[in-house]
Amino acid sequence: MSHQTEAQWSDETMTHDDVERTYKIYIPSTYDESEPAALVLTLHGLGDNINNFSQIGFAPIADTANFILVVPQALADPMMGTAWNSGAGMMGFFPNSTVDDIGFLNALVDHTLANYSVDADKVYICGYSMGAFMTQRMACESHGRFAAFGSVAGTRGSALTSCNPNVAMPVVHFHGTSDGTVGYTGNTFGMDVDPLISFWINNNQTDETPIHTALPDVATDGYTIDHYLYTNGNADVELFKVNNADHVWLRKPANDISYTEELWKFFRKHEGAVNINEVNSNASLKVYPNPATDVLNIDISNIEISKTYTISLFDIKGSLVYQGKGQGNQVQINLGQTSIHHGMYLLKINNEEFHITQKVVIN
After folding, report:
1. Please, what are the domains in the chain?
2. Stretch 135-152: mean pLDDT, rounded?
């Protein structure tokens, strides 16, 4: 039986890697079990906390847009205060470098999917400052879980010497050109903004020349905003370049735009953590049940299959957890005979005739 609920915040805990972690969760007034909601994770900056960061304005939007909001708390580093293991650091020091924050955030998504009615194709993550660095790390190392990524005033940390997502993903970035904490250029904690955007342009194979829009300058805040949209690729890339802005989170009416509103506008345009990439455009794939428990049925249609194909399952970190062979248009995986645990996985089916990728959930 479905039911609606009153909008509310609650403080929750979960144990990950033998450490008790805390987070806040907001269930919107529109939440109904019969209509799966989206899920948005927001990551606070260095030294901040979830009580403060939960006030950036997502909750009122959630009430009308029907998404669950989760605000996780970073652990305290002895020298730097609360900090994510984001790869951001300087002079060889990287806060909380032994903390499994990637595992924690993925476990938190799993926990939310298991306890609420959530559309697994509509899971998003964003962050501010060090939370943005952590968001970029998730985009590099745990991309299969999220449909889109948003970073504000934080890029990719200097400890992350490589980033190989191997799939296109929507990314939006916001940054002030006068940021004195995380520089637009001369960033002491990681990449400058322009190289970051260039990386995602190349990764997503978009046009190198963007659609440029100078946003209306209506607020007397001393800032102007240039918006750059990179399209015609496998996933869009957007940049909001805020001229003269320091290390701040823009809000209306004091500023021309609200970062919170723009993040949700970007997220709602994107659904599905991975796009299906078919060498043969006629091939279509049906995977059921999804979520699966005991067996996973695979049905490939609209193509005559003459050769054996490889079936692979990758976890959210990109590790291969299952591989087998298939022949013909229908095949079944007996999950009970594998060591696969519950969670989200990327299913890849390919041979020289076709290549199909799809996200699956295993309970």
Report:
1. 8-268 (3.40.50.1820), 284-362 (2.60.40.3080)
2. 92
Rounded-to-integer distance, Cα 172 and Cα 152, Å: 9
Provide, for the chain, the percentages of residues in helix, strand and coil under a 3-state DSSP scheme, each rounded to the nearest 5. Answer: 20, 35, 45
- The tokens for 285 are 């794939």
* pLDDT > 90 in the chain, percent: 66
Which tens digit of pLDDT belongs to each residue from 27-40?
999 899 989 999 99
CB-CB contact of 300 with 356 (8 Å):
yes
User: Whole-angstrom Cα distance, residue 185 to residue 1?
Assistant: 54
Q: How many secondary structure helices (H) and strands (E) does the chain include?
A: 6, 19
First to last CA, the chain: 21
pLDDT classification of 307: cutoffs 50, 70, 90: confident
Phi-psi sector, 238: left (phi>0), alpha (psi -120 to 50), beta: beta
The dihedral built from the CA positions of residue 286, 288, 292 and 296, taken in this order, carries a sign that is negative
The Cα–Cα gap between 260 and 214 comes to 19
* 3-class state of residue 65 by DSSP: helix
126: nearest Cα among 65, 189, 173, 196: 173
CA-closest candidate to residue 155, choices 178, 180, 173: 173
Question: Is the separation of the CB atoms in 297 and 287 below 8 Å?
Answer: yes
Rounded distance, CA 223 to CA 239, Å? 15
User: Which residues neighbour 18 within 8 Å (Cβ) at sequence distance 6 or greater?
Assistant: none
The H-or-E segment that residue 204 falls in is: helix 193-204
Give the pTM. 0.78
Closest CA to 23 of 62, 75, 58, 67: 75
